[in-house]
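My current task is to audit a protein record that another person submitted. Alongside the sequence sits a line of tokens, each denoting a local backbone shape. Where you disagree with what is written, explain briefly why. This is what I was given:
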Amino acid sequence: MTRKLFGTDGIRGAANTEPMTAETALRVAMAAAQQFRRGNHRHLVVIAKDTRLSGYMLEPALTAGFISMGMDVTLVGPLPTPAVAMLVRSLRADMGVMLSASHNPFEDNGIKLFGPDGYKLSDEVEAAIEARMAEGFAQADLAGPRALGRARRLDDASGRYIEHVKSGFPRGLRLDGLKIVVDCAHGAAYKVAPKVLWELGADVVPVAVAPDGFNINKDCGATAPLAMREAVVTHGADLGIALDGDADRLILADEHGTQIDGDQIMALIGRGWADTGRLRGGGVVATVMSNLGLELYLKDRGLTLARTPVGDRYVVEHMREHGFNLGGEQSGHIVMSDYGTTGDGLAAALQVLAEIQRTGRPASEVLSVFTPLPQVLKNVRFDPSGGVKPLENAGVQAAIRAGEKHLGGRGRVLIRKSGTEPLIRVMAEGEDKAMVLSVVDEICTAVERAAGAKVGATE
């Protein structure tokens, strides 16, 4: 079975246009309910959302779909994605739903589904749900008048998540004496993130904590961290934390306002856990986009970097299959399976803060774990209507081989087709930036020729 609705992280699109309509949300809920109804117990689904205006449209549609199939619904309002995963387990629910388009602007929204184990669904389960939607629903599939589900709100959901996140912070350690800027992207963590840091003793400077339905991720958050970085310098803070709209990833800034990405965070946590015997799997799991410098750093310490396709879901799948407990993405998804089943920006930030407090060293020293290798990424746009497949072209393959030879053993070339746009993404890394740029340009030229694109039209 193949998937059409589901992408690398659930279903996503512009609000009130297919597939992000109330009608489709209703049908997704009905099909998911069919998929996860097992046994004669009262079935339960947890639904959370971020702060987008369209959440008011999609949340009732999902609720109606589940209730029509006899499932009870627990509504928790705006909460981070990792809170849904936690609550599914805590409440012994049959599944969970997060309404969010993550780092996208307010115009978009998305539906992320979690199974009873608190993990995002596999490709196979998502395909099965799509197949149920295509088959349609007969009267026999629907619950009878006495078997309809009920909906209720869980008033203490945010408190449960706050305590869950704090449980991963070392006992006996506090954040007294630290000034921390936290940019919540006007998103799902706008209440819980500042509260967690305050309860642990930090002097908190909140940024982007006034959602209005339209401003989520707008010039703020993990994908636009300049506001956070400037606030760190302005307020003389010790650390800056920028979360995205659903708070499952983060970008940091040290006391100078210098931006820190997920690779450095994984290196720091991985080193600490390895030194204390807590790291499982013999290394860290990351995607093909993580910097080669991280891989070389781990290798020098006798650890491995296992790479997966782009998407935190694939990172988690590899972690589960091979026994790792730490993984993530350069973009800031940090997955620590000892504390949760999906990326959690706030939980990862607390691990960094614990190291700062333990060592008494500034963030600039703590988070300068390895030296990233120069990395260059360019995109080549092409017209796919003619069936052109640039990556299968002999000239492109020859350019890739030549590039890999030029970069040698301490360099890397990565060519991949975008999953959402007609783009070929060309990336290279190496110790010599000029050589890296030359390799990328040569491969881009070969791709442009193979695709029939205008040479020099890279993005």
Q: What stands out?
A: The longest strand covers residues 71-78. The domain at 262-366 is CATH 3.40.120.10 (Alpha-D-Glucose-1,6-Bisphosphate; Chain A, domain 3). The chain is about 35% helix and 20% strand. The mean pLDDT is 94.
